[in-house]
Amino acid sequence: MQIPQPYLLFLGDVTDPLAAKTARGILHWRPDSCVGQLRLTAQTVSLQLADLSLADAKNLGVKTLVIGTANAGGVIPESWQQVLKDAVQMGFHIASGMHQRLRDIPGLSALAEQHQVQLFDVRHYDTPLAVGTGQQRAGKRLLTVGSDCSVGKMYTALALDRALNQAGTPAQFKATGQTGILIQGQGISVDAVVADFISGAVEALSPGFDTHAWDIIEGQGSLMNPSFAGVSLGLLHGAQPDALVLCHELGRPHIRHLPHMPMPDISEVLAANLQAARLTNPKAEFVGICLNTSAISEQEAQLVCEQWRERYRLPVTDPVRFGVDNIIQRLVDRGA
Questions:
Q1: Helix (H, G, I), strand (E, B), or coil: what is residue 141?
Q2: Which segments constitute the D-glutamate N-acetyltransferase-like N-terminal domain (predicted)?
Q3: Which class for 264: exposed (0-12), middle (13-18), buried (19 or more C-beta within 10 A)?
Q4: Rounded mean pLDDT of 91-113?
């Protein structure tokens, strides 16, 4: 899956800022790829981009209309569907991270075929894949892993990718979830892959290479979350990571959506991920910990990072507040 850029971010008629988090993520990490926004009402949440019509966007060279919102159930509202059809008829590709497939909108696939454009359902993956082999391949890989779901694995991977490239160490971000795919323009949504093929999908996503220094692979789920540990294990085996970065949210009382499951001990999380990773790369090691410290003050966060550094003998940071330079330095010190 490779989505042509630049983008026009479609916000529909949503008024809840949280509903536009996908579009915000794209804008934050790939501002040069976002030409403008398309809103259906004046009350629709704004990203402070130029409000463009489809015709305006076409004249400015936009290639893909991206549905930048999420809603309960992941259904594309019927009131939006004519806009999508108009866009296809004007030659735009369409990309969506919704659960509902674009191809299931009546008449949209036929229009796309007629106008020779593509419909990208990034939450779905239908291309045949091989099973993983665990065979060693060229290149170095870093995988972000988590103590739970939604603890900052994508943000951390993107921050590391940006910092490495800015430091003169060529790296490529490898997206494994729908938002990451829309940010990068390519990737495989591994939670849409049949379980037997997850490790093979990651091997295909990050094949052997000698053109750059690191592939930074976006993690999914957590070995410690009973709902999603399977996809996490497949990622660990398929990535064959040389380096791992643990992501954790301070103050989370229990595993997300499972109040009967307390948050695990961090030492156990580190050990479990290392054991799993070393099946396909016996030299895998942790190079840092990234914390979400939004629940405490910045001063308190600095203290916690220092305490964790002493406890776990690893660079520790909040990538939003403090950046990731200390982890980058660890990679450089070990010969990145």
A1: strand
A2: 49-124
A3: middle
A4: 95
Instruction: Say what the pLDDT of residue 146 is.
Output: 98
pLDDT beyond 90 at 127: no
The DSSP 8-state label assigned to residue 334 in this structure reads T
* Residues β-bridged to residue 181: none
Question: Which domains, ranges and CATH numbers included, belong to the chain?
Answer: 7-121 (3.40.50.720), 140-333 (3.40.50.300)
Q: How far apart are the C-alpha atoms of 65 and 11, rounded to whole Å?
A: 10
Helical H segments across the chain, by residue range:
21-29, 54-59, 81-89, 108-115, 153-166, 178-184, 198-205, 229-239, 266-277, 298-312, 319-322, 325-333
202-217 pLDDT tens trace: 999 999 999 999 999 9
The arrangement of strands across the sheet holding 64-67 comes to 34-39, 7-12, 64-67, 93-96, 119-121
d(CA 98, CA 198): 21
Residue 125 has pLDDT above 80, yes or no: yes
Cα–Cα distance, 104 to 13 (Å, whole number): 21
The Cβ of residue 142 has, within 10 Å, a number of other Cβ atoms equal to 27
Collapsing DSSP states into helix, strand and coil, what is residue 79?
helix
For residue 206 the two structure tokens come to 């990050």
Report how far apart, in Å, the C-alpha atoms of 100 and of each of 7, 27, 71, 162 are. Answer: 21, 23, 11, 32
